Amino acid sequence: MTAFSDWSESRETVADFRKTLLDWYDESGRTHLPWRENTDAYHVWVSEIMLQQTQVETVIPYYERFLFALPTVADLAVADEELLLKLWSGLGYYSRVRNMQKAAQQVMIDFSGQFPRTAKDLQKLAGIGPYTAAAIASISFHEVVPALDGNMFRVFSRLLKITADIALPKSRQIFYDKIAPIVDPVRPGDFNQAIMDLGTSLMAAKTKTTAESPFARFNLSFKDGTELDFPVKSKKVKQVQRFYAALVSESDDGARFAYTQRPTTGLLADFWTFPLLEFTSWDDIYEGVAAIYPTAQQLTIKPVTHIFTHQKWQIMLVKVETHGSHKNWTYFSDEDYEKMPQTTLQVKLQAALKENL
DNA sequence: TAGACGTGGTT
DNA sequence: TAACCAAGTCT
Known about the structure:
Adenine glycosylase active on G-A mispairs. MutY also corrects error-prone DNA synthesis past GO lesions which are due to the oxidatively damaged form of guanine: 7,8-dihydro-8-oxoguanine (8-oxo-dGTP). This protein is an alpha+beta fold.
């Protein structure tokens, strides 16, 4: 092998890389993960969806609970949405679980209860894109396809100094074409999982390769000291600040609080929260609330803050007295509230309320 | 295609 | 702290 040169065309070096990777995986891979104990497509699917943009440690308890409550795809297909959202509460990206039920119904109706066995067909299911399709196809059905996730982009961009911008969708094909011939034809699922483990350990985002690494000799960017320049990634989203008053309205008997249901589309779709009034700046909130509810009392000194990917919310809890009915408000007792699926945002608001009542 | 979509952890 | 990262997909 010539230093500083692309080895992906060399049959010998590719074979060497596969063996090095799989030997390392057998020795150092995270074989103890619950979803690696059973390669049944349903199990792999549930884990892959949960793991999207979500860390392993967070997922484990959710995964165990979900599989216990819904052991088969048939169970998922007919489950109540409220149960699904309960099982997902706090995990985020709630469209994932809604799409999972759609996909389960597709499997039952369009595929006679059997998961499709190829990446191409798996992508027909709701919520399954190119990454998840390839992961399931390779792990459960031994299809020889690369599962291109953030780890694989990073690992191969460094190994082969691929400069395509991973923020651009069109770059996926460039990576796919480069990596597909490298995937181990005998153990494609293990190859993909090994790359993920590699990407979270020896080749994590801010980790630099050492000369002792078994992958140093394959790493072209390590050889010329440009490792942390990869992957090339352009897009950046800036966070928007938003300011809210969360209205705490007790029913006449003092036993229940008012809630409103969020719109069916968009952020936290369909979840119930305290009624929220938005203001353009922090300073407007006090006067703004007082204008509508003259007897309003501020309940919190510091606002509750909640950060989404693209928005930062600051919410002040305000106790209000209302006269007449608010069409969109519903009063729930604590007992009924506990039964409903809740987002982390609402859990924070509720906790702040209990502390300050 | 760029932006929306949750949450928790790290720097 | 604000920004960025973590097993992406949908519109």
